[in-house]
Amino acid sequence: MNPAPVRPAGLAGRLSLTAGRVALVAIPLAILALFFVLPVSGMVARGLWVEGRFDVVGVQEVLARPRVHRVLWFTLWSSGAATACSIALGIPVAYVCYRLAFPGRRVLRAVVLVPFVLPSVVVGVAFRQLLAGPLAFLGVDASAAVIVAALTFFNIAVVVRTVGSAWESLDRRPGEAAAALGASPSQVLRTVTLPALRPAILASASVVFLFCATAFGVVLMLGGLRYATVETEIYLLTTNLLDLRAAAALSLLQLLIVTALLLGVRRLDLTPTATQERAPAPPGRVSRNDLPALSVAVVAAALVMAPVLTLVVGSLRSSGEWSLVNYRTLTGGAEVGGISVVNALVTSLRVAVDATWLSLGLGLAVAVAVSRPSRTRRERTTRSLLDGLFALPLGVSAVTVGFGFLITLDQPPLDLRDHPLLVPVAQALVALPLVVRTLAPVLAGIDVRRRQAAASLGANPWQASWVVEWPVLRRPLAAAAGFAFAVSLGEFGATSFLARDERPTLPVVIFRLLGQPGELNYGTAMAAAVLLAGVTAAVVVAVEQIEGRSATRGAGLR
Amino acid sequence: MSALALDDVTVSYDGVRAVAEVSLALPRGEVLAVLGPSGCGKSTLLRAIAGLELLESGRVLFDGADLARVPTYRRGFAMMFQDGQLFSHLSVAANVAYPLRLRATPRAQAARRVSELLDLVGLPGYDRRDPATLSGGERQRVALARALAGDPRLLLLDEPLSALDGPLRERLATELRAILQATGTTAMCVTHDHDEAYSLADRLAVMRAGRVIQEGPIASVWRAPVDTETALFLGYARVLADKAAMTFRERVPIDALRATGDGGPRSAATRPAPAIALRRSALSVADRGPLSGTVTSARATPEVVRLIVEIAGIGEVDAVAPLRRRGASGVVEAGPAVGAEVHLAVDTTRLAVISTSLD
């Protein structure tokens, strides 16, 4: 037998495989370059290059302004406080939601998790209503505290989800070993359980801090001019004061801080130690020891329910009595530039569908590229660089992206300002890190040998993916789709720049309604916020249902 | 008085009984092995003793005191898991010192005890190692040191050596036995491996489908398994029943059988023995012997030739032959081949009489 004829075929096969991999990375990279790097750098350059020269003095001047110091300090302070609150409330709630069995557990879980996907304008309206109504006695000075509360409201869900699912799949045996060695429940918690949850806690804390530091809609609506964070300050400088240089300097500052934070998180060892076999415990019965955790859960549920209830009640009242008038005007009546709320909702849904398939396609490609096992050190470095690069939109001001789109994609050959996919692309980039974060760990968790086994049995790469990856990926894909859809429905930062006046999305319309005088406009804004919240929550709950159903089917097969 | 006593212990999962009406007693300083196939409820029993499972009924007593209301961490036991369950965020020394830290032992004293224990388990100088860098055997040694650190009243071992492979397992079993004896530890060990049970324990309880089938000093359980299934699980190769057993007894001297069947809880001497359990090496090829038959299968191993021999009136039995032997003519020849007629000698210490298989 002569092996020579085999060799070229093998080489060709390897070449096409490599070509496939290159395409897998190149396409998302190109899109990221065109729609993220170009706009952001364009925006930054616009402010920093004066007459073709880098304007160092100008940057220094901006960074020396007392207001910039105040803004920076408030950003760090409010984000830190909200992160601490989210962790303090989130850990006990995670325990209650994921480790205890009691009637109403699913409902409690939904109540704490849904806020994360609520559009920021909705939350803004809700907390505003809270501050105007039940908490009016606190006065305007409470704004800062209310901002922290609102950020916490959003982000408890991140902590509960991350820590809870880690807790749910935690091997029960180390804890049992400790108990058998004489450790009391609180000692087990302190010396075994919390150290085992440390990666999940740190990971959620860093993500929450990022979300808080770059939150836009809520802070803008609650803080206004007085309590600005770097993100809202960029918006105010860009749109109100037209001080592009200062905005660019702040964008750059934010980019640096976020990059440093992402790199710092990467240095922490957040990968849980691999155990060959885990024996997770089923949720336990409620005992007297669980009282502290249960009471925290009740407080958290109240914190989450209060603004939502206030919003719903507010939307149902007009001129001091119960009325549906605010809802009747949704189809017309209180209009912004001739656009009714229902029109805007249709636009939002259309845009969200496009944003969802865009971010799923991109996210899947990126997740596959970064989760393939690396054979050489260079491959590993490249992979982790890519991973970090695609995480950047998580921390970069959506305002910067949005404004960057406007000023860089407005002339031939790239005049995309009127392209119907412009808004979906921007929203897809905002959702991209979430999609990648949902899919990549799942793909990385698949044992390579399973693919190899499939290949050795004669499966081509597509068939191997179908039998190995697809079954594992189906549920996370549904979850990622739901997330992307919800993010797109609520996206406000970038969309506020990019949505065309005759086709605004619902969050934009709500924001504009709030800016117009009159009780009816305010009431309509509240009704629209309830509508948007309802649609978003419905999408997320539907996705959870799909997830839950396929979960039980999987269990049945086992 | 027994240190540990189980009184009609029953544990159920969703109405299915994993452990059913188990009663056992374990004297102080002895080691009890609970032997059973996987899924027989032996691990559940161990967890129930540790307080990790709720009893449906029955009592767990230690020194006569009912432990029903005593939580796991106040029982003063220690449990060693199949894969060690070392705390991966702590060093080897910190793992071993864990029970001492819980008791707020002064630092210097704890350090001394840790190095004593690491010496005891044969890992001196391993203090600063990360558990992730240890081999399976080393991990189990650390787990043992950690379990012994708090001077437990009772050590519970859940398949302590099952995760290890052949030769290492044998060596560690011997060491573990020596350490348990040296420290005078009362211990209970569940395993599915009869060799492991034999090398570790003083007493043996055989479990099947949630029930204890037989219990007693290890040698007597071995000599007189209570039924066919138990005999096979204890490593007997074949059980002859009914006519085959009768024929066997007619040809093999009856006194020898009586002599072996005296130690078990239900002695063979009290009733006619209807079944005979044979270990592989009970029958061996000899120049003359009470049995003879035709070889139907021969398989060479490094030490002996394993045969299956068809004996008229008895059927197939297992037997061994030396790899090479001096034949009647004085010439060295290989072991018997398929089809050969052979005589078999009987080693009565390697067979057991089962008295209750008619039940």
Summarize the structure.
The complex is a heterodimer of chains A (558) and B (359). Chain A is an all-alpha fold.
Could you characterize what this model shows?
The complex is a heterodimer of chains A (558) and B (359). With 558 residues, chain A is mostly helical. Chain A has a single domain (13-311, 321-557), classed as MetI-like fold. In chain A, 74% of the residues lie in helices and 3% in strands. Chain A has 22 helices and eight strands. Chain A has a two-stranded antiparallel ribbon with strand order 1-2. Chain A has a two-stranded parallel ribbon with strand order 3-4. In chain A, strands 5-6 form a two-stranded antiparallel sheet. In chain A, helix 1 (6-48) packs across helix 14 (341-371), helix 3 (66-99) crosses helix 8 and helix 10 packs parallel to helix 16 (398-408). The relative contact order of chain A is 0.12. In chain B, helix 2 crosses helix 3, helix 3 (107-120) crosses helix 4 (136-149) and helix 5 (166-183) runs parallel beside helix 6 (194-200). Mean pLDDT of chain B is 85; it is low at 259-270. Chain B is 28% helix and 33% strand. In chain B, strand 9 (203-208) and strand 10 form a beta hairpin. Chain B is built from ten helices and 20 strands. Chain B has helices at 42-50, 92-102, 107-120, 136-149, 166-183, 194-200, 218-223, 228-233, 242-251, 254-260; strands at 2-13, 16-27, 31-35, 57-62, 65-66, 77-80, 154-158, 187-191, 203-208, 211-217, 238-241, 275-278, 283-286, 291-300, 304-311, 315-322, 324-326, 332-334, 341-346, 351-354. In chain B, the strands form five sheets. In chain B, strands 6-7-8-3-9-10 form a six-stranded mixed β-sheet, sandwiched between helices. Chain B has a five-stranded antiparallel β-sheet with strand order 13-19-14-15-16. In chain B, strands 2-1-4-5 form a four-stranded antiparallel β-sheet, covered by helices on one side. Chain B has 359 residues and is an alpha+beta fold. Classes of the chains: A mainly alpha (558), B alpha+beta (359). The interface between A and B is medium-sized, with 23 and 31 residues.
